[in-house]
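REVIEWER CHECKLIST
Item 1: Sequence provided? yes
Item 2: Single chain? yes
Item 3: Sequence as submitted:
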Amino acid sequence: MDHLNLKRRAADIVTTANVLSGQLAQLGLPEPSFQQGLPPNLLSDAPDSNANAAKDRLLQLLDEFRALLTEPARLLSPELVSRIHGAS
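Item 4: Structure as written out by the authors:
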């Protein structure tokens, strides 16, 4: 596994989480929690905002990170997958 890629992706997640936290603090809103749920401006029908954009980016990064750790070969094109499995 490419550790630099893993660390870079994790750092991107932390950076984006900090952006989201800062945006919410500027608006005087709490961070998402299991007790309070999502602040209104992070709900799916909320208008575009910097906080909402940061939430969407964070979700995208988390999806990529999960895919990297669970099944990275599924993200490759079929041609590359057959070359990898054919070389074994």
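Item 5: Key structural point noted by reviewer: The chain has three helices and no strands.
Item 6: Recommendation: ____
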